[in-house]
From TrEMBL:
One of its GO terms (molecular function) is hydrolase activity. It comes from Sinanodonta woodiana. Belongs to the AAA ATPase family. This is Vesicle-fusing ATPase. It comes from the Eukaryota. It holds the Pfam family NSF_ATPase_lid. Its cofactor is Mg(2+).
């Protein structure tokens, strides 16, 4: 048995990576037949799938997803086992609670979280005296890793690479309207004999289309949910992209109840405003997949997102969606304040100051950009944050000066 971990490990710009992978592929395709060998490859990069999954190479493709809550409890227990053995865990640590707070964390991220919490706790050994950092000899007596260390690491150190911990902020009626419409369509998809049921989430860039599509899919709680986005296909040729998209649909057809999110559909179609140009091959593939019924007894919900409705209209894709839901940007000061209050970024004094400054002014900003701006100013000194935040809002066209 041969196991290759991190098949795609980078060799910087040395060219080592390509040479090694090509050599391995050549071995797998080789003229000499090797009997009684089991080869297992592991990768985090779906974009090299196609070459690896060709007939005669790796035959079975198994996806290892993110751990669920009970999985995270087990992983946390593994990484805190030695500390527990040496009685270094404070009684206020509740592994179940940490597992609930680490949604979308991978096993490696949970390990990093434990390490970050540990290093935060180790800070208690440091004592500053006369502007010098010294080791505090008394700190060791009652030293333990406690809940606050984990909370600090969660807040400041480790964020999950997949998914988003922030989720959806219900900043106003427009968000509720999208989610309610989504829930209604899910109910129809569950009960309807005629699927695929498809709908389009349309809104300007950064208005939160992907996050809302994911939230709707999460609410659906379907056993199979897959996001098809250009991020995973950047290095693919046109035909490989089609194959990749087709594979997602083939996998979905195996489950009795599936949901596919086609994110930024104009980007999947290789749309270029110059020309305008797009891939005819991908467009035909998508059109066919969007209109083909899944096998008997299987139900499929397809959620597409776009910020270029006009492009879909031009490509004659728009009319296959009977339902279209608009995702709004934030256009009122009340809604902006709801976001700010929800993420606890500013003090109540700062929020009052902000309210006075933006009251009655016209405003138009997508939630994605707004959250980025808040994150930027959050790190600053308290007395500078609101001034900087307002100037960012004005610069980016969100707020009238
Ligand atoms: N009510 C909300 N609706 C949507 N996203 C929200 C909301 N509240 C918070 N968010 C966060 O805002 C971000 C929205 O980014 P997202 O990628 O979904 O936007 P998008 O419109 O798909 O962007 P793009 O046009 O660049 O593809 C996400 O990080 C999401 O977690």
């Amino acid at each position: 048995m041969v196991i290759f971990t991190s098949w795609t490990s980078q060799g910087g710009n040395t060219g080592v990576h390509d040479t090694v992978v090509n050599q391995l592929l050549a071995k797998m395709d080789g003229v000499e037949q090797l009997n009684n060998n089991l080869l297992i490859g592991m990768t985090y990069r779906e974009d090299i799938y196609m070459a690896l999954l060709r007939t005669g190479r790796l035959e079975v493709d198994t996806e290892i997803g993110l751990p669920d809550e009970s999985g995270r409890v087990q992983i946390l227990n593994i990484h805190t086992a030695t500390m527990r053995e040496y009685n270094e865990l404070a009684s206020d640590i509740d592994i179940q609670e940490i597992a609930a707070l680490t949604k979308n964390f991978s096993g490696a991220e949970i390990e990093a979280l434990v390490r970050a919490a540990w290093s935060k706790a180790m800070d208690r050994f440091n004592k500053i005296s006369n502007n010098k950092v010294k080791v505090d000899p008394d700190a060791g007596k009652n030293w333990k890793l406690c809940r606050a260390d984990f909370m600090h690491a969660l807040e400041h150190d480790i964020k999950p690479a997949f998914g988003s911990r922030i989720g959806i902020i219900k900043w106003g009626k427009p968000v509720n309207r999208v989610l309610e419409a989504g829930d209604m369509l899910i109910a129809i998809a569950r009960s309807s004999g005629r699927t695929p049921l498809k709908f389009l989430l349309e809104g300007s860039v950064g208005s939160g289309k992907t996050a809302l599509a994911v939230q709707i899919a999460k609410n659906a709680d379907f056993p199979f949910v897959k996001i098809c986005s250009i991020k995973k296909m950047r290095l693919f040729h046109e035909a490989e992209k089609c194959e990749f998209i087709k594979k997602i649909f083939d996998d979905a057809y195996k489950s009795p109840l599936s949901c596919i999110i086609l994110d930024d559909i104009e980007q999947l179609l290789d749309f270029l405003p110059l020309g305008p140009l797009f891939s005819n091959l991908i467009s035909q593939t998508l059109l066919s997949l969007l209109t083909t019924s899944p096998p008997l007894g299987h139900k499929l919900l397809i959620i597409c997102t776009t910020s270029r409705e006009d492009v879909l209209q031009e490509m004659e894709i728009l009319n296959i969606f009977r339902t279209k839901i608009h995702v709004s940007s934030i256009t009122s000061s009340e809604h902006l304040i709801n976001v700010v209050e929800n993420i606890d970024a500013f003090t109540s004094n700062e929020i009052e100051q902000l309210k006075k400054k933006i009251n009655g002014k016209s405003l138009c900003i997508g939630i994605k950009k707004l959250l980025k701006q808040i994150e930027m100013v959050r790190q600053m000194e308290e007395n500078q944050r609101i001034v900087k935040f307002l100037s960012l809002l004005e610069e980016e066209g969100g707020l009238e000066p």
